[in-house]
Design brief:
The complex is a heterodimer of chains A (117) and B (511). With 117 residues, chain A is an alpha+beta fold. Chain A has 4 helices and 4 strands, in the order H-E-H-H-E-E-E-H. Chain A has a single domain, classed as 3-Layer(aba) Sandwich (Glutaredoxin). In chain A, strands 2-1-3-4 form a 4-stranded mixed β-sheet, with helices on one face. Chain B has 4 domains: 223 residues, 3-Layer(aba) Sandwich (Rossmann fold), CATH 3.40.50; 90 residues, Roll (Ubiquitin-like (UB roll)), CATH 3.10.20.600; 80 residues, de novo design (two linked rop proteins) (Up-down Bundle), CATH 1.20.1440.230; 66 residues, 2-Layer Sandwich (Alpha-Beta Plaits). By secondary structure, chain B is of the alpha/beta class. The chains are: A alpha+beta (117), B alpha/beta (511). At the A-B interface, helix 1, helix 2 and strand 2 of A face helix 1, helix 3, helix 4, helix 7 and strand 8 of B. The structure holds flavin mononucleotide (FMN). The site of flavin mononucleotide has 23 residues of chain B, from strand 4 and helix 18.
């Protein structure tokens, strides 16, 4: 019988290839807070903006995430870009999300006023 | 696999150095970093390695020993050493055993467990599978409150996904170990968080506690040996298995190892969830992690442990956050609620708030809790209504101590704590309410006096707002309030745009 650890190792490889297929290793990754608290603060329409406006983009992965504990700054959105430091936007609204797409995602300009310090 | 320096990763991803730097993330290690609805994300981040490790290279006894040596204690409130519970359950000879996760989270203001399940549901599935292996159980139940629909959905998905990957079910990861679990919904009664009431509720009986012993480890769910732990306790397990008992016990202090998640609420700049190493002081969590008191107000008290806990004062801010120190200071660790109170709050009123909660949540089975708390609440209500009598404070203390000693379960045994601790630390405020009919924080409505000062321009807004017809005055001339008619509703105060109404509470003559 093969050992559970090696069985899991196989599973991890499979998980990785599934993630890969879904674009997990894209150059840009966007994480939108989607816990009860984030949703209450208004993250669902924010998520929709990212999903709708970027649906034809290839090298971008959009994911939900749980709560990191920053209640008073929610909804939060993190943007990871290859070889760059992650950026956390706080109190994001659908309007801010559109700006973030335009300036940050498409033109590489971080909107510093909206970044959590 | 990439090395996970949890807290560093958090400050790296989130910036926010002040908030995250002093934290240490173990139970919340994945919360906010992975997609909770994607098992691949969890597995890729190293998930289920701990389960595979115990199934490959550890005996159940090894697992129990590791948990015992780690020094982990229950995060649900009482702080019972987790390893000892596991050992006791493992020792029982029985063909059927259960593991249970207590996700009832009834403390008002607490949301640690919800965040863990919503942000990292697989950590609970993995932790419980490890626990089941250690004690020899094949069935698990998560008792989750129905008010958490998103947590229910995500945990349900996690369980189903884990089954598909053979991380639950028969012969997990091709081993000889089989285990499966299900969710049972609680209807949101506080007392159902108490372990014996919880198990009654799962069995379909009324959610009422019973006497212990026998403890659940001996006779629990359906009278079978049962290992019951809190969500956060379970969430710590996989990290302990991966990193070892020594690693875990190197974090924290003496008898309190590891970390504790707190829900910071009330008058604090950074409301939210923070996981801190045990032994940090209250001052550090409030002023550094929490960012201090907003709006330039002064700190007055910190309440830990929710309706079972107590209020600590400024002079106790250097108390370490560990089970023993908090108890010694007159509060408890509890399940992680931390409410910060500033100078605008009335301590008598706060005590009343918690007692209203426990009074309405008492299940009514035992007399001290059912009748005693009710009487205490009556006395407190009369004190805040300006009807307090000399001797009331002593009566509260006497009743409180009696209820603590004589109640059947932890609800009654701890319900008087908010009252007793505020009497101990803020006795003068109680005395002012009782003897002088005054509330220095201007919170207790019946003890307030409204008067009109010389800024009044006679706009009549207050006169029109007053439902009792207690305000007189001609247009464009200063108005007056007839105190004997005033019902102290505060409508005039809120209607005035000229700061012409004073709200005061002054010591009244003894009748
Ligand atoms: C009135 C009352 C309510 C409780 N509510 C909870 C709860 O919501 N969640 C929880 O984990 N433990 C709660 N407990 C504590 C449980 O009885 C039990 O001690 C705990 O779940 C054991 O898990 P642990 O050892 O991992 O902390 C409550 C206890 C009492 C007396």
């Amino acid at each position: 019988m093969s050992k559970p650890l090696s069985v899991l190792e196989e599973k991890r490889k499979e998980a990785k290839s599934r993630l890969e297929k879904n674009g997990y290793f894209s150059d840009t990754k966007i994480y939108v807070g989607m816990a009860t608290c984030e949703i209450a603060a208004g993250s669902v329409p924010v998520m929709e903006v990212f999903q709708n406006e970027l649906k034809n983009e290839k090298n971008i992965y959009i994911s939900q995430k749980g709560c990191a504990g920053r209640c008073n700054l929610e909804p939060t959105v993190e943007i990871y870009q290859k070889d760059k430091e992650p950026v956390k936007y706080i109190q994001v609204t659908p309007e801010k999300a559109r700006e973030i797409i335009k300036k940050h995602i498409k033109s590489g300009k971080i909107i510093t006023e909206w970044v959590g310090k | 696999m990439e090395k996970q320096l949890f807290t560093d990763k958090f400050s790296y991803v989130f910036g926010d150095q002040k908030f995250f730097k002093k934290q240490k993330r173990i139970a919340l290690k994945n919360c906010g970093l992975i997609d909770p609805e994607n098992i691949d994300d969890y597995i890729y981040a190293g998930g289920y390695t701990a389960l595979a490790k115990v199934l490959t290279e550890m005996t159940p006894e090894d697992v129990v020993k590791t948990v015992k040596d780690s020094g982990l204690r229950g995060r649900g409130g009482a702080g019972f050493p987790t390893g000892i519970k596991w050992e006791a359950t493992a020792k029982q000879q029985n063909d059927e055993k259960f593991v249970v996760c207590n996700a009832d989270e009834g403390d008002p203001g607490a949301f640690m467990d919800r965040s863990i399940i919503e942000g990292d549901p697989h950590s609970i599935v993995e932790g419980m599978a490890i626990g089941a292996y250690a004690v020899g159980a094949s069935k698990g139940v998560v008792y989750l409150r129905a008010e958490y629909p998103l947590a229910i959905k995500r945990l349900q998905k996690a369980i189903e996904d884990a089954r598909k990957e053979n991380l639950l079910g028969n012969n997990i990861l091709e081993s000889n170990f089989s285990f499966d679990m299900e969710i049972r919904l609680g209807a949101g009664a506080f007392v159902c968080g108490e372990e014996t009431a919880l198990m009654n509720s799962i069995e379909g009986k009324r959610g009422m506690p019973r006497t212990r012993p026998p403890f659940p480890a001996v006779s629990g769910l359906f009278a079978k040996p049962t290992l019951l732990n809190n969500v956060e306790t379970w969430a710590n397990i996989s990290s302990i298995i991966i990193n070892g008992a020594e690693w875990f016990s190197s974090i924290g202090v003496d008898k309190s190892k590891g970390t504790k998640v707190f829900a910071l609420a009330g008058k604090i700049t950074n409301t939210g969830l923070a996981e801190i190493p045990m032994g940090m002081t209250l001052r550090e969590i409030i002023y550094e992690v929490g960012g201090g008191i907003p709006n330039g107000k002064k700190f007055k008290a910190v309440q830990t442990g929710g309706p079972s806990g107590g209020c600590l004062t400024e002079s106790m801010l250097d108390t370490k956050i560990d089970y023993e120190s908090l108890t010694k200071a007159g509060s408890i660790m509890g399940s992680g609620g931390m409410i910060i109170i500033d100078e605008t709050a009335c301590m008598v009123n706060i005590a009343k708030f918690f007692l209203e909660f426990t009074q309405s949540e008492s299940c009514g089975k035992c007399v001290p809790c059912r009748e005693g708390i009710k009487r205490m609440l009556e006395i407190l209500t009369r004190i805040t209504d300006g009807e307090g009598k000399t001797g009331d404070i002593e009566k509260l203390e006497e009743l409180g101590n009696m209820i603590k000693k004589a109640s059947l379960c932890g609800l009654g045994q701890s319900a008087p704590n908010p009252v007793l601790s505020t009497i101990k630390n803020f006795r003068q405020e109680y005395e002012e309410h009782v003897e002088q009919k005054m509330c220095r924080s201007l919170v207790c409505e019946k003890l307030l006096t409204y008067t009109i000062n010389d800024k009044c321009i006679g706009c009549s807004a207050c006169r029109r707002a007053c439902p009792a017809g207690a305000i007189a005055g001609l247009p464009k001339e200063p108005h007056t309030i007839h105190q004997e008619l005033c019902i102290k509703c505060g409508k005039c105060y809120r209607s005035c745009k000229f700061h012409a109404i004073d709200k005061t509470s002054v010591a009244k003559e003894q009748k």
